[in-house]
TrEMBL record:
<dbReference type="GO" id="GO:0004523">
    <property type="term" value="F:RNA-DNA hybrid ribonuclease activity"/>
</dbReference>
<dbReference type="InterPro" id="IPR053151">
    <property type="entry name" value="RNase_H-like"/>
</dbReference>
<dbReference type="Pfam" id="PF13456">
    <property type="entry name" value="RVT_3"/>
</dbReference>
<dbReference type="InterPro" id="IPR036397">
    <property type="entry name" value="RNaseH_sf"/>
</dbReference>
<dbReference type="InterPro" id="IPR002156">
    <property type="entry name" value="RNaseH_domain"/>
</dbReference>
<dbReference type="InterPro" id="IPR012337">
    <property type="entry name" value="RNaseH-like_sf"/>
</dbReference>
<feature type="domain" description="RNase H type-1">
    <location>
        <begin position="12"/>
        <end position="142"/>
    </location>
</feature>
<dbReference type="InterPro" id="IPR044730">
    <property type="entry name" value="RNase_H-like_dom_plant"/>
</dbReference>
<protein>
    <recommendedName>
        <fullName>RNase H type-1 domain-containing protein</fullName>
    </recommendedName>
</protein>
<dbReference type="GO" id="GO:0003676">
    <property type="term" value="F:nucleic acid binding"/>
</dbReference>
Amino acid sequence: MNPVVVQWNPPNPGWIKLNTDGSSRGNPGQSSYGGIIRNNHGGLICGYMGRLGYCVSLASEIWGIMRGLRLIKEQNLNNVIIETDCQAAIMLITVRKVDDSDPLSSLINACRKDMMDLRCYMVHVKREGNRCADLLAKIGGYLDQGEYIFHRDPPLELISPLIDDAYRRN
């Protein structure tokens, strides 16, 4: 039996892909998020990262999705596939009813509204297929609390993984 190689896969022509991730040093703990938007050739459109401060890991995952959705709107992008390795975040945003008393309800509702306004959908990806977003989320942990950085060009730490993703295929 051959092992299955998990990697980032580009979207079909005419679509772009947003990969998001959250990072937390403890749960709850110091948290950050990151994301990357790429075209169907694996080329970087833009990326982002930010530091939240102290929160639960699920909050950092949802913040990463919400910031990515806002960036899609700001950049006037459409036909977007959103990938995250957090199944719980996908369920909260796309399926499960969330009570207004839930501390994450405003974030979840913001994501739902943005998804309705955009032509996009969300899917689960294994962690190995989300490594560029994971790297940005981890780098975001070194920012000042509340800081958010938008990248038109990749940070140096991201160049090698981007190239690997663009040229490595099954």
